[in-house]
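User: Hey, quick favor. My workstation is busy. Could you predict this chain's structure for me?
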Amino acid sequence: MAEKVTDSEGREDLVYIKTEDGSYRGWRVDLLIDPLSNKMEEKMLLCSSCNGMLRDACFYEGQVRCGVCIPEGVAWQPVIMNREIVSDKMISCPLKKRGCEWSDTVTTVLHHLEECEFFPVLCPLGCVCLDGERKGKIMKLEKRRIPEHQRDSCPLRELVCEFCVNEVKACEMNPHLEVCEYFPVPCPNECVIEGEEATRQLKRRDVPVHLSNECPLQKVECPYWVHGCREEIERKKMDLHEREFMHIHYRLSMTDMKLKLIDSSQELLTLKQNQIETNDQLDRATKEIAFLQNENENKTKKLSKVNHMEEKLATANTKIENLEKQITEKDSELKSIKEVFYSHTSLPTGQLEWKIIGVKQKIQNKENTFSDPFYVGLYKCQGKIKWNSLNTGKVGVYISILKGGYDNKLHWPIRYKRTLIILNHINSNNNYEITKQITKEDLEKYPDNFKRPTEMSNKGCGNCSFISNTEILEAKYCKEDSITLLIKIELLPAL
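Assistant: No problem, here it is.
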């Protein structure tokens, strides 16, 4: 899994004061463009606990402190004036030493670091460092250097082999060239093209064919090998060998032909003996066939009676098969009904409470998320979430109609009123809620969304910009990296 850059090891380290217990307190004063001018201003704007510029200023025991510096469970009173003064202070980018010239109010610096071209980010391709403090970990570079890194130096970038035109990772190019079938290699016998001095170059895949059919230096068997000549000669010298040893090849050929003639005579004698035995066996078989034909006539008469009984049996089996089909259809219909009324996700009240965990990871990976199937009446439905839908930075929530075993009993197209709610963990009376009723115009504009499903699922219908990624990560909705989405569906009468 790719390494993540979190606030705790990135942006907050740059803008807040980090204490020994690992918590983050007030703003770093050294980032201010105009330093605090006098003791009065320091007393008004600096936290008496962490000595950083006030963050959520409040009174505690007669002193002004950051809200995060006060012990847990202690009530405190906000200082509105201090908040306004601090929020207007101009601050430079924490990465100024690297070359960033940005400056603005303190309230915008965290947002700036999300886009800052000098902020270190992980290589998108996941290449790792080979030395240094981050050896073995995914390489970090300034955001502005990522395109150049991916283009020129990342070992995991895709390159095109100049010989086979296949895409290969840069770190795997050398091993690939050692096995590439189109890579030029010299002839193993170091033969040369006529009129040239350099060794012949071949594609690696063509070497076996070259040695078998073309290479003049490849040793091959003499054509008279089958007759007894056991010489292996270079292909270019074979003609000379045949001319010099012509008389020996002739004697070997004649000797071989005489031996084969003797073997053929013996085989012919054996075949004649086998023919006599075969004729005797054929006579015996003819007599046995005549006897079996007589018996077969008697059995045919008995078989006709059996066939009549088999016809009756086949008719009975057909009736049984029809009854079994009817029973199977009824079982399937009963199974569909049980699935609706006894499934643990069945919603007779038309409401699904869906807890979604790992929200930050899903948003970062733009990972589509699906709920378990659930029922509204006898309609089978499923919830779906698209994170960063349409690259707008917002979350899309959709309802899809799934194919169910009771669809032939239902009315189509389906109409319903949906209510999508994200529960507020802090104030249950302030949930995020959107309600939409399917109208006649919706049925005409998106007929495939509400008709009887022919595939496993219809197209989803919902809100492509339900809520932004930033809002959904707020503490009131996101608790322990999870949110709870409540889906209410009320079936409406047909138009």
